[in-house]
Amino acid sequence: MADDVEQAEQAEETEHAASPPLDPDVLARRDAAMRHVRKLGDPILKTKARPVERFDDELRDEVARMGILMHHALGIGLAAPQVGIAHRVIVYRVEPDSPVVALVNPDIEWFSRDEEVSEEGCLSLPMIHVDVERPVAVLVNARDEHGAEIIIEASGLEARVIQHEIDHLDGILILDRTSREQRKAAMRALREAEQAAAGVAS
Ligand code: ZN
Predict the structure, then answer these.
(1) How far, in Å, CA of 184 to CA of 169, rounded?
(2) What pLDDT, in 10s, does the model give residues 24-59?
(3) CA torsion, points 93, 164, 20, 98, in degrees to nearest 10?
(4) Burial of 76 (0-12, 13-18, 19+ CB in 10 A)
């Protein structure tokens, strides 16, 4: 028994080793932000989002709010459906110090033939990590929040985040992109977490 606990603790440490320890304020802000993020089971996550037609102040406010929410949630990408808006808008930032990039009506024009498997998480599926195979590089055509055309050539993590977020605009989640075994294990973990939370609440 003692061994099980110790192993569990070690596993936890390994998983968090890459990130610096978080102070209580950061954690509180993250938890508050996460309450605004739609989770698995919300029908909007399975809905195809509509293209944006008006590049107005409302859109720019939406983009700004998404950037702040992503920052507080400690995410590197966020799609509008995750905050309840069925619009084709994504924001991302793969380097902590770089500005947030907003892509409106993004369209992937080219995928590299090379693909790579890497572990992905999702703010809409807290605690779940699954392997997803994706093209290593993409060429994306989009508008910014002012309506100007932008073309982005991305590879590595940036290409992966863009593809993950555009999937959200088409109602596709990482569970739809992983192996059957990993999907089953993830669904089981989510059910157990839900039951544990229900147990605590009652
Ligand atoms: Zn996601």
Answers:
(1) 24
(2) 999 999 999 999 999 999 999 999 999 999 999 999
(3) -10
(4) buried
- CA 196 to centroid of ligand 1, rounded, Å: 23
User: Residue 75: how many CB atoms within 10 A of its CB?
Assistant: 21
Question: Residue 80 corresponds to which amino acid?
Answer: A
pLDDT 10s digits, 68-88: 999 999 999 999 999 999 999
Tell me, in angstroms, the distance from the centre of ligand 1 to residue 52's CA.
Answer: 20
Q: Residues near 104 by Cβ (< 8 Å), separated by ≥ 6?
A: 52, 55, 59, 63, 88, 89, 142, 143, 144, 145, 147
Two tokens, residue 184: 């089953």
The protein residues having their C-beta less than 5 angstroms from ligand 1 (an ion) are 122
Q: Output the CA 45–ligand 1 centroid distance in Å.
A: 9
Global pTM exceeds 0.85:
yes
Could you give the residue numbers annotated as active site? 165
Q: Give the residue among 95, 69, 99 at the shortest CA–CA distance from 84.
A: 69
Angle at which helix 24-34 crosses helix 57-72, to 10 degrees, equals 130
Residue 179 CA to residue 201 CA, distance in Å, equals: 33
Position 137, amino acid: A
Enumerate domains of the chain plus CATH numbers.
8-201 (3.90.45.10)
